[in-house]
Amino acid sequence: MRQTYGKLLPGMRISDLSGKLIVIEGTDGVGRSTQINLLRPWLEEQGHAVLDTGMTRSLLAGDGIRRAKEGNNLGRVTQSLFYATDFVDRLENEIVPALRSGFIVLTDRYVYSLMARAFVRGMDSKWIRSIYSVALKPDATFYLRLTIDQLVPRVVFSRGFDYWESGMDLYPGRDMYDSFCNYQTALLREFDRLSEEYKFEVIEASAGAGEVFGRLKAGIFNILEADTRKEFILTRDKKPLSISSSAGKAKIDAAPQDTRATEFELVLRSILAHATHGNGKTAVHHK
Amino acid sequence: MEITSGNGFGPFEAFLPVPSTATRSHEHADEGFPGRLFIVEGIDGSGKSTQLSLLHKWLESKGYGVVFSEWNSSPLVKDTTKLGKKKKMLTAATFSLIHATDFADRTEKSILPLLKAGAVVLCDRYIYTAFARDVARGMDREWVRELYGFAVKPTVAFYFRVPLETAIGRLLDGRNGFKYYEAGMDLELSDDPEESFRLFQGLILKEYEDMIPEFALTVIDATLPIEVQQAQVRQIAKAHLDKATNVRVER
User: Fold this and answer.
1) Residues of A with CB below 8 A from B77's CB?
2) Which one, A248, A264, B26, B123, has least CB within 10 Å?
3) pTM for this one?
4) CB A11 to CB B92 under 8 A?
5) In what order do the strands lie in the sheet with B66-70?
6) What are the extents of the domains in chain A?
7) Nearest neighbour of A77 by CB, restricted to B22, B108, B138
8) Is residue B6 part of a domain?
9) What SS3 state is found at B65?
10) Nearest CA of chain A to the CA of B214: how many Å?
11) Which of B12, B22, B84 sits opposite A76 (nearest CB)?
12) In a domain, B9, yes or no
């Protein structure tokens, strides 16, 4: 039975959420989006419907947050609450409906990133935890971890320093490099603490994208393995699966219907078999 | 937690990293800041805005540095709120959060620094509006109170108490129709906006009544003549200003 971290939003039913909520966490530049871009096609090839979502992607608050960040005058409390608005909009309008429809939801960061950022900015822990008590507990959280030494070259030599990723609102150091190191070090400390508290599955991101992808596939495979939907389908071997739920006993002898049902069953079983044997061995995704 | 002035705290350190947010909002502005915070609350049609603007005129005439802050007016956030309302995208939860975001921006940029600078800050609606509306929309009472834990407690929170029918009578005279969220149409209490508004305001009124003892709101009988109410408001405000130092500005 799915749970929240304590409070349930009005009108939110969570008893029938059959999908899986999978969180990819980590600080800036660890390769979260690269991995999600690999995971999505991998899951879809196996026949799973995937929704991917991430911070500031809400219809309601995404643009507002981007505009607010342009001005560099977004206060710390305001920032925390703007992100919370964005999160709850996506929780209610994307994540929960997708889970109800049986999707695998891949989320690029979750409440943990928002908590880490807020804690680094001196926000009260009880306050932040109360706000995010409405969040769903995920099926798994994979924490892509890099040390600060490993992180710096990745960011510097790809996209350069960003005002907010360098925590310039917080550590207006002599230059962005100093700020970046101070801020990201503080963030890593928070992530490591949260990792213990919320039992993240830690993946050393220094291993390289291919290796990390393998670890993620293995982890997600374990979750899907335990999926009750699959058990439901696989334990029905005695009866042929039918496309039409209204197919009565009288029609079972009808040859065309039976063939179609068998075909359907074959396809479904191959999807499930693929998922079972696909662990780490499915298509290698080149760029 | 004691909020003290002149201790070199930045604008946020003064109230954020303390252990409990729940108790924090129960601190009086006068205990730490040289400024004073007067806020007005009440259902639509209670006459609170009229009273606040009269108080504003009077304070200015007395030479105080007065700043007015309206509910839902942050330049950083109001476009998002407007979008959410126009497209009817707001749920009880996001309605609550976006208004808290707006309030946070005004607190961080205006209310708190101005109180530190010794201004008299006047707010038309404050956290109690959120408590009443959000809970009427089904949000958890405790969650909403915790959400606003960063707010500065007002020097005086005036609550303009008025019977529902009196307030509605005043509003219906001057307008034709209610907006979707204003009428609480999202609660699906009634298909008729006027009836929905009535029912919604009834729920809000109930929340306000419960908050009088909880937050020690200063009740003003809003059925009295405007002049009588204003005399009471000024007398109460004056008592708090007498104790204040450093709030007068040269004109």
Assistant:
1) 64, 68, 78, 82
2) A248
3) 0.84
4) yes
5) B66-70, B120-124, B36-41, B156-161, B218-221
6) 20-226, 230-277
7) B108
8) no
9) coil
10) 20
11) B12
12) no
Cβ neighbours of A129 in B, within 8 Å: none
| Cβ-based interface (< 8 Å): residues of A facing B | 7, 9-11, 59-61, 63-64, 67-68, 71, 73-78, 80-82, 84-85, 88-89, 92-93, 122-124, 126-127, 130-131, 133-134
Q: What is the pLDDT along chain B (251 residues), one digit of tens a residue?
A: 333 333 322 333 333 333 333 334 444 444 578 899 999 999 999 999 999 999 999 999 999 999 999 999 999 999 999 999 999 999 999 999 999 999 999 999 999 999 999 999 999 999 999 999 999 999 999 999 999 999 999 999 999 999 999 998 888 876 677 899 999 999 999 999 999 999 999 999 999 999 999 999 999 999 999 999 999 999 999 999 965 555 455 44
Whole-angstrom Cα distance, residue A36 to residue A219? 14
In this complex, do B16 and A63 lie within 8 Å of one another by their Cβ atoms?
no
Q: Could you tell me if B20 and A125 are in contact, meaning their C-beta atoms sit under 8 angstroms apart?
A: no
Tell me whether residues B94 and A60 touch, CB distance under 8 A: yes
**Cross-chain residue pair A73–B76, CB shorter than 8 Å:** yes
Domain count, chain B: 1
For residue B227, what are the CA distances in angstroms to B47, B158, B159, B165, B224? 12, 16, 16, 22, 8
Multiple choice CATH, A20-226, 3.30.750.24, 3.30.1030.10, 3.40.50.1460, 3.40.50.300: 3.40.50.300
* Alpha carbon of B189: minimum distance to chain A alpha carbons (Å): 15
Taking an 8 Å cut-off on Cβ atoms, the answer to whether B104 and A74 are in contact is: no
Q: What is the CATH number of the domain that holds B167?
A: 3.40.50.300
Residue B7, chain A, CB below 8 Å: the answer is no
Instruction: Please check whether residue B13 lies inside any domain of the structure.
Output: no
- The answer to whether A17 and A100 are in contact (CB under 8 A) is yes
CA–CA dist A26, B12 (Å, integer): 27
Residue A39 and residue A42: Cα distance in Å, rounded? Answer: 5
